[in-house]
Recover the amino acids of this structure.
């Protein structure tokens, strides 16, 4: 059995677009006719440029190879261009293709992917979700309203979720780390207070940031949040400043989480060594694929750290996350996004039930992809999957962070 053909579909989720502006889906076919699906979570270049990278990685390193030889294909891509170092774009391309190889292998052996990864360690996987606006909420006002956030959290708990994430801490800009405005700290405290009062001890609070603070700024913010006991303080400073993140971890009594922008064990290992985070959040469609993150999970065990796979993409990466999560002993939880489009794209083959996910029993990733639906929603925009804003932190009028792909306004 050899890898023969590659097809790439760039699909855009309908408004409000939770999960980013587009998802890059890859379909591999073997010379025996077995197909496998993957998803490339790569956002540093546009989708057409990324299409070229994916095609190059496939033809150069994978085409004609057995899908079993994942280690060999990873080393080819990792070493490409005489580098042997993490490359975010190349690894993003390889990660999606690697996921598709696991889908093929599971189908060929008539076993779910988790069964090929050491078996099922976790019979069900704890899910968490971002707080999204409810139907009666104003899409603009929601992001700065502790009251609306508390309503959304109450709704999540009623649906069985035991952990909710929110991100009220101000702008994510291309300028790098900044000192938070005092109004941003006050707003963050107000969100924690309102949500904690709404959910009590029924749900953990996951405080999201996106590397936007200086070390001192992150410490000021984190210490202000301590009374509400969030389960984590996510990526409080830029992810490559490992020693500085360790300073935050030592100064704040909230576990630090990081990893959605890291790729391969070469970038995760320094985080563990420095004590910069005790929760790792790999995005499997970017971080090197399932096999590479199994290695990272094993390293994390040594440091008594846990894994919480990240998701701000489509349901194929989510499916990969679920199989990975099912197979590791140090799982904390897995991110999920519930929209009708996510569900329809894999024909409801994996779902959250009362806040938990049951690993699929069907072969491969255990999903059925609606290829016609994916092709019926092509991406026609000019933006990247996620984008930082140009404007600096506003210390006078306050800040409203709507994410890297804000929902379109009517």
């Amino acid at each position: 059995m050899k890898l023969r053909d590659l097809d790439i579909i760039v699909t855009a989720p309908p408004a409000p677009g939770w999960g980013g502006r587009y998802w890059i889906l890859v379909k591999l076919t073997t010379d025996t006719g077995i197909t496998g699906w993957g998803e490339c979570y790569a956002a540093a270049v546009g989708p057409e440029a990324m299409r070229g990278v994916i095609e190059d990685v496939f033809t150069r390193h994978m085409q004609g190879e057995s899908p079993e030889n994942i280690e060999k294909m990873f080393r080819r891509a990792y070493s490409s261009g005489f580098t042997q170092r993490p490359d975010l774009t190349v690894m993003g391309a390889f990660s999606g293709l690697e996921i598709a190889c696991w889908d093929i292998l599971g189908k060929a052996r008539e076993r779910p992917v988790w069964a090929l990864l050491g078996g099922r360690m976790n019979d069900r996987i704890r899910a968490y979700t971002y707080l999204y606006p409810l139907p009666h909420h104003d899409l603009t006002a929601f992001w700065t309203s502790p009251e609306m956030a508390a309503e959304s959290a109450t709704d999540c708990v009623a649906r069985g979720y035991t952990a909710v994430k929110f991100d009220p801490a101000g702008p994510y800009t291309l300028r790098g780390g900044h000192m938070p405005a005092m109004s941003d700290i006050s707003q963050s405290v107000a969100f924690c207070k309102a949500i904690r009062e709404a959910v009590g001890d029924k749900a953990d609070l996951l405080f999201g940031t996106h590397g936007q603070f200086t070390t001192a700024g992150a410490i000021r913010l984190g210490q202000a949040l301590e009374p509400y006991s969030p389960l984590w303080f996510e990526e409080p400073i830029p992810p490559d400043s490992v020693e500085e993140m360790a300073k935050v971890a030592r100064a704040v009594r909230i576990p630090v989480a990081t990893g959605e922008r890291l790729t391969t064990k070469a970038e995760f290992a320094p985080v563990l060594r420095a004590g910069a985070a005790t929760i790792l959040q790999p995005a499997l469609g970017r971080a090197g694929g399932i096999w590479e993150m199994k290695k990272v999970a094993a390293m994390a065990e040594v440091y008594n750290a846990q894994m919480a796979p990240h998701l701000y993409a489509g349901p194929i990466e989510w499916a990969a996350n679920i199989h990975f999560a099912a197979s590791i002993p140090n799982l904390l939880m897995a991110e999920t996004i519930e929209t009708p489009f996510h569900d329809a794209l894999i024909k409801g083959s994996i779902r959250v039930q009362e806040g938990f996910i049951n690993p699929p029993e069907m072969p491969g990733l255990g999903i059925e992809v609606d290829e016609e639906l994916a092709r019926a929603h092509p991406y026609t925009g000019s933006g990247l999957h996620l984008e930082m804003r140009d404007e600096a932190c506003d210390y006078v009028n306050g800040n409203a962070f709507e994410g890297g792909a804000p929902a379109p306004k009517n």
The longest strand covers residues 3-11. The mean pLDDT is 96. The two ends are 50 Å apart (CA to CA). Residues 88-109 form the longest helix (22 residues).
